[in-house]
Amino acid sequence: MEKELLVEHHDGIVVMTLNRPDARNAMTQTLAQELAAAIDELEARDDLRVGVLTGKGKAFCAGMDLKAFLRGERPSIPGRGFGGLTEKPPSKPMIAAVEGYALAGGFELVLACDLIVASTDAKFGLPEVKRGLVATAGGLLRLPLRIPPHVAMEYILTGDMMPADVAHHHGLVNRLVEPGQAVAKAIELGRAIAANGPLSLATSKRIVNSMADWSQDEMFVRQREIAEPVFQSEDAREGATAFAEKRAPKWKGR
Length: 254
Fold this sequence. Notes:
- The protein has helices at about 30-45, 65-70, 105-110, 140-145, 150-160, 165-170, 180-195, 200-210, 220-230, 235-245; strands at about 5-10, 15-20, 50-55, 60, 75, 80, 95-100, 100-105, 115-120, 125, 160-165, 175.
- Helix 4 (about 140-145) runs antiparallel to helix 5 and helix 8 (about 200-210) packs antiparallel against helix 9 (about 220-230).
- The strands form 3 sheets. It has a 6-stranded mixed β-sheet, with helices on both faces. The chain has a 4-stranded mixed β-sheet with strand order 4-8-10-11. Strands 5-6 form a two-stranded antiparallel ribbon.
- By secondary structure, the protein is an alpha/beta fold.
- A hairpin with a 3-residue loop joins strand 5 (about 75) and strand 6 (about 80).
- The model has no long low-confidence stretch (mean pLDDT about 95).
- It is built from 10 helices and 12 strands.
- It folds into 2 domains: about 5-195, 2-enoyl-CoA Hydratase, Chain A, domain 1 (Alpha-Beta Complex), CATH 3.90.226; about 200-245.
């Protein structure tokens, strides 16, 4: 049987493709486990810098496989959440490349990523309320932080789908592309990110994702605690040396 997740490497970029196109890439326990394993590989390997998450066929991900749900299956991993991603995103940057529908848990996978590239025919939504359920994989927590809260509340309470152009208008989508071009643009964006220092990337992402809990009095102290090791690293010296020598830096990640 073909794997439910396809993994390809492109010069430090890992493309993870949800591979259940006949089921609109609905998440299963098997797929969640395979995605978690791919994320672990991204984290463990120094030569892998950025992850791209996408779906095969005409949908990104339609959420939880409801047929499996009725059989008692929940496609979530303890401590990691839906799809093995939503509660514990990797320290390295993740880009969602969205074609077609990203609904329910599928949209929550997108929101767990750091950047979003979407085709013009993409649609996002949290339709759980239409099914008597609640979007508990991060949608209610993240969407109001990414777009105006009242706009987020409308989509949360109606369960309606948000077109890609509306998502782009509100700043949720970073790049809007023609259908079929989302992965290529995500890889292009990923290469621009991967050219930078890996310690700098992971530390910057950690600060941005942590600062919501910091008070004004402590925010610079907390930031300094996290960032100072980067300034003492070999990569910091390499970055400065490469700039002075007018060459591309050779990062070591330490």
